[in-house]
Amino acid sequence: MSNRNKLEDLFINEEEELEKYIPLVKKVIRIREETGEPYILPPKEKLTQKRFIALYLIGKYFSFKLKKSDSPSASNVEISNKLSLEKRIVNARLNDLKKDRLVERVNKGEWKYNTINLKKFLEDLLEDLGE
Fold first, then answer.
1. d(CA 104, CA 94)
2. Distance of alpha carbon 38 from its chain centroid, rounded?
3. What pLDDT does 25 receive?
4. 34 falls in which pLDDT band (50, 70, 90)?
5. Which residues, including other chains, have CB under 8 Å from residue 71's CB and lie 6 or more apart?
6. Cα distance between residue 25 and residue 119, in whole Å
7. Cα separation of 64 and 60, whole Å?
8. pLDDT classification of 79: cutoffs 50, 70, 90
């Protein structure tokens, strides 16, 4: 095996990684087939604002992967409207999520979930929810 082939073992295959997480994702998010809108399963009252927003962005990502959305990201305004949260709260929580390396800014006011941390986020969430 050449050195180049050995080094290729370091690549992350996003599709393979995400396939492993589908059983976890299915416990907290579904995608509306007709609209591509993320549907968050746990009641809003059981989630922190940060987790609620993170789940919405995870849903957007999977909706995009399912070709039900034209973008894996969402704007502050979209998140605010879809989740019925004040824009200032959304902005503050997105900045918290960015510090936690769970989301990344795509453009000004546009955010997407950082899938590298998806497994840990979902495992922690499900544990806290008693699943």
1. 9
2. 10
3. 95
4. very high
5. 60, 64
6. 9
7. 6
8. very high
Which range of residues forms the domain containing residue 34?
14-128
CB atoms within 10 A of CB 36: 17
Domain presence at residue 2: no
Residue 1 pLDDT > 60 = no
Tell me if 58 is assigned to some domain.
yes
Give the span between the Cα atoms of 39 and 26, in whole angstroms.
10
How many Å apart are CA 73 and CA 76, to the nearest integer?
10
Domain count, the chain: 1
- Supply the pLDDT for residue 8: 78
Phi, psi of 31 (to 5 degrees): -115, 125
**Cα distance between residue 91 and residue 97, in whole Å:** 10
Closest alpha carbon to 17 in 105, 122, 129: 122
74-75 vs 103-107, strand pairing mode: unpaired
Residue 72: predicted pLDDT: 95
CATH of the domain at 41: 1.10.10.10
